[in-house]
Amino acid sequence: MNFEEFIKSDRESRNKEKFEGTFLDYLEIVKEKPEVAKLSHKRIYDMVVSKGIEVLKGEENPKVKKIYGNDPIRRYGFFKDDFFGIDKVIMKLVNYLHSASMKGEEARQVLYLVGPV
C-alpha cells in the first residue's frame, strides 16, 4: 500500500467513526473506556512501555560500563529490533513522553525530530 492509498483509507474510516452525541454521551463512553480520553503522549508512552524495560547497570556488566559509564541505562523492548547504540537518546525521548503524558511542561512543547543528516 502506498502512502496516498493509506491516507485515503484512513479518511474513509474516520468518516465512518464520526461521533454524534451529547457531552453526557461522551462522558458515559469515557466512564466505560477511560483510554478514550488519553492524550497522544500517554498513548505513545503506554505503547512503548508495554513491550518491557530492561535496566542495564554499569557495575554489573563491564561492557555496559565501558560504553555508558556508571549511569543506569534503560532499554525499551519496543525499539530493540529497530535501533542499536542510541539508548541514551531513546531514554530522553521516553522521558519526554512520560513527563508530557502526566501533563507536565513538556505537554505544551513541540517535539521536533530531525533525521540523519
From TrEMBL:
- Give UniProt keywords alphabetically: Kinase, Transferase
Q: Which residues form the PrkA AAA domain?
A: 22-117
Any idea which GO molecular function terms this record carries? protein kinase activity
Segment forming the signal sequence: none
What is the top-level taxon of the source organism?
Answer: Bacteria
Give any Pfam family that matches.
AAA_PrkA
Please report the name of this protein according to its UniProt entry: Serine protein kinase
Species of the source: Clostridium perfringens
